[in-house]
Request: fold
Amino acid sequence: METKIFSEGQIDDAVKLLAAGELVAFPTETVYGLGAIATNEKSVKGVYAAKGRPSDNPLIVTVSDAEMMARYAKEVPERAKKLIKHFWPGPLTLLLFVKPDSLPSAVTGGLDTVAFRCPDDKLTHDLIAKLGYPIVGPSANTSTKPSPTTAQHVYHDLKGKIAGIIDGGETRVGLESTIIDLSVKTPIVLRPGEITPEELSAVLGEKVLINTGKVSDQDVPKAPGMKYRHYAPAAPVMVVDDAKDFAQINFDKTTGVMALDAELAKISAPEENKFSLGQDLTDADHNLFSGLRYFDDKKDIKQIFVQGFSGSEETLAYMNRLNKAAAGHHYQVN
Ligand code: TXA
Ligand code: MG
Reply:
């Protein structure tokens, strides 16, 4: 199958493909998503196949506005209304009870809840509004690989497997949306993102819990995606929690390093094996997945060292993704 690249003026062509049951990747402010019309079970199954995704890992339902969401939610609680008013369109996904029989079970993985997201992206808003139906939207990467922050990343992973990609340029945030579960007594953040628990708590006027991410294989996981290996390039990744420790490491042509400019400047390593995360944490969020992909394509790299951050809630999203990419491995000085 030829994978077409669409630009701003070609949204109608992409709408036609989705309406015909084809798969089209779309831009959002977080990462690129892999779209299929959410009401067509066969199309939804095609998304799992294209990504190589385990079928018990449910998909986000991407809507153009809260009215579209209400067609598929059992009810829209007051908490959801408050969050929507404040954060939508934006990088916040809401977990609500699904309206029975409104969506194929391939979307929800057979759960009684469904994740709703309304991205802040004009092209994707127009795409869904013109289609008139929501689209499923997992990140548009091959399962286990880092999420795509450019149309080129999507093409790299899914060319020949999907009908098209809408090119909206580089995504703004670079890490996936915050997911908050509103189907439970106390709201809980299942996946950290740009919108922090503190901000959610301030808008809700109540306590918000944070999932610790410790999901054992025996448990039925709350966000099923969290139990899988994720975001991982071919070479093993090591988190360097204290940037001073970079000085202890012997870098050579088999090692890659990802750090902020200020740290990178102090490191002596082959230039092509250094990847800049930028100037600050916001830049690092934006660049993390690109960097992991950069080294994934360099076959002589056998180990990647990546700067870690700590100290505030703003670091949660970055460290959550990095820890998964590193499978929990942190550099320790001997
Ligand atoms: O920013 C984002 O959210 C991106 C863009 C493309 O919108 N999408 C995204 O989708 O990250 P995905 O499928 O890669 O991650 C969604 C996560 C998965 O870990 C999945 O297990 C979880 O949400 N999820 C989806 N439906 C759920 C449900 N009903 N209950 C619990 N977790 C759910
Ligand atoms: Mg994903």
